[in-house]
Amino acid sequence: MQAIFKEIVDGEDQKVRDRIARDPSLVNLVATGQPKQYAGQSAMQVAVRTGAFALARFLLENGADANFVDTDSPSGWAKSVLHDAAVAAVMRSRWVKMTINKDSEKEWSVRNSDADADEAFETLVALLDAGAVVDAVDSKGATPLGRAALTANDVLPRRRDDQPERNDDRPLNPELVHDLSRIFEALMSRGADPDQVEPQLDMSLTQYYAHRLVGKFLAGEAQPDPAS
């Protein structure tokens, strides 16, 4: 693995910044060799996928390609860096998980910090501001909004208004509503359209998620559960 990618993965941000200062052309270097999980990715793409968001924005500010696609990925799944940033922003949102407290009681706790959510979201916005194509389609036929919706469906409470018997009791917390709402708004305000046919689904996101919580976020109508 080239040195710059090892430094990104190891969290050695200053070494990466110093290296770019010495040789600006490295900003768009593509990873080769081992480990295979990074092969075919640009430096900024590796930074986004490993959660080095401040570094990803630094690379973008220094000429990294906002529309890079890892077409040489060994997995064969080619995605734009905007796809990765949209998924990362959702995964770093403040969703809740079940934990056990000191009294051995089950309780819900927020998964990520305010800083986690903000760093990932700021990177998504930076890419959009830099001209990342908002309706780009990955090699499996999904747009960035489609990937964001799919990931959000995984972190949201399971609530289907057509199958209420399958719903879970995970709360919809205000932090998650805030974080997901701004992600969807950022994408849609730049032209992502939930009513257009999503190639992978052969229907629109609005149709596909009509009976799920994600549909409310796509419509801008999501509200947190009332405080207990």
TrEMBL record:
Query: According to the UniProt record, where is the region Disordered?
Result: 155-175
**Which keywords fit this entry according to its UniProt record?**
ANK repeat, Repeat
Q: Could you name the domain of life of the organism this protein comes from?
A: Bacteria
Q: Which Pfam families match?
A: Ank
- Presence of the UniProt keyword ATP-binding in the record: no
- The ANK repeat units are at 39-71
Biased composition (Basic and acidic residues) is annotated at 156-175
Q: Which PROSITE patterns did the record assign?
A: ANK_REP_REGION (PS50297), ANK_REPEAT (PS50088)
| Name by which UniProt lists this protein | Ankyrin repeat domain-containing protein
The scientific name of the source species is: Microbacterium luteolum
Organism lineage reads as: Bacteria, Bacillati, Actinomycetota, Actinomycetes, Micrococcales
